[in-house]
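Need residues for this backbone.
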């Protein structure tokens, strides 16, 4: 496993396990448990995923079974926009996440979207961090202009910005801007989010064959070599194990460029944050 150092001084694994769109409690708990047993130590959930309680149950189960200690895990959750109306609403949302997870504290807590009163919500997160409830705080889906404004005016700079990052939406300029402020990039949908078929791409398959790996492993490795934390999701044990096995090979500069050449810019993104209907959907969810 490789790690990245956050602006808090804490280290964060560069490969984690995500649970987006795994609402079934038993399925989610079992998948997270299997991931921890496989060696994953970064687990990513969110209030909006409605499975924080299942993630917490899996973590407690893994600790009880002696697979790991709480200190060895790096658990992330996110504050949804309906809990970002003001300072008090945000603090209530933070406490709700902590209660559902029931694992003592969160290693990282993110604002899920740059919507509603995310400035007041950030001040609540700063206070929760100072109180020991959150070890690090960050953001998600903050575009470069929004992140720049945020970093320039807020007292505490986000430790992480979790955004959509995959070969069809490489966001090189966003990565450069995050680096300027010491914000660690983290990729949601690192395999394309189901919108594309990277597994059928002959170019990706040829690279995978050279290294004796799968296309999924190659694409995860591509992001990691760019300095991006990845959190692939799966509920299948074989794929969970496969996604974890990316540390015994390295892509060449030519292979990295070949993968990045699939970039479609903003049209390649799945979540359309610049579109009013998408914003209204988030605010009304």
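Answer:
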């Amino acid at each position: 496993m490789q790690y990245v150092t956050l602006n808090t001084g804490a280290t964060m694994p560069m490969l984690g396990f995500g649970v987006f769109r795994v609402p079934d409690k038993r399925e989610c708990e079992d998948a997270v448990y299997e991931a921890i047993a496989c060696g994953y130590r970064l687990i990513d959930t969110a209030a909006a995923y409605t499975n924080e309680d299942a993630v917490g149950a899996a973590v407690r189960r893994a600790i009880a079974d002696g697979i790991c200690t709480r200190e060895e895990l790096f658990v992330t959750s996110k504050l949804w926009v309906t809990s970002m109306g003001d300072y008090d609403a945000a603090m209530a949302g933070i406490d709700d996440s902590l209660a559902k997870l029931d694992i003592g504290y969160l290693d990282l807590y993110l604002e899920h979207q740059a919507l509603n009163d995310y400035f007041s919500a950030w001040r609540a997160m700063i206070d929760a961090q100072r109180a020991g409830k959150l070890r690090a705080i960050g953001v998600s889906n903050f575009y470069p202009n929004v992140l720049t404004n945020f970093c320039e005016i807020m007292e505490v700079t986000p430790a992480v910005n979790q955004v959509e990052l995959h070969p069809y939406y490489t966001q090189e300029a966003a990565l450069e801007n995050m680096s300027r402020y010491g914000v660690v990039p983290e990729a949601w949908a690192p395999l394309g989010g189901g919108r594309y078929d990277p597994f059928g791409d002959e170019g990706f398959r040829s690279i995978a064959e050279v290294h004796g790996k799968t296309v999924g492993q190659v694409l995860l490795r591509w992001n990691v070599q760019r300095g991006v934390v990845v959190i692939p999701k799966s509920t299948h044990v074989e794929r969970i194990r496969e996604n974890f096995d990316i540390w015994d090979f390295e892509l060449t500069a030519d292979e990295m460029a070949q993968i990045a050449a699939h970039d479609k810019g903003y049209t390649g993104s799945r979540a359309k944050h610049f579109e009013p209907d998408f914003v209204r959907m988030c605010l009304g969810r």
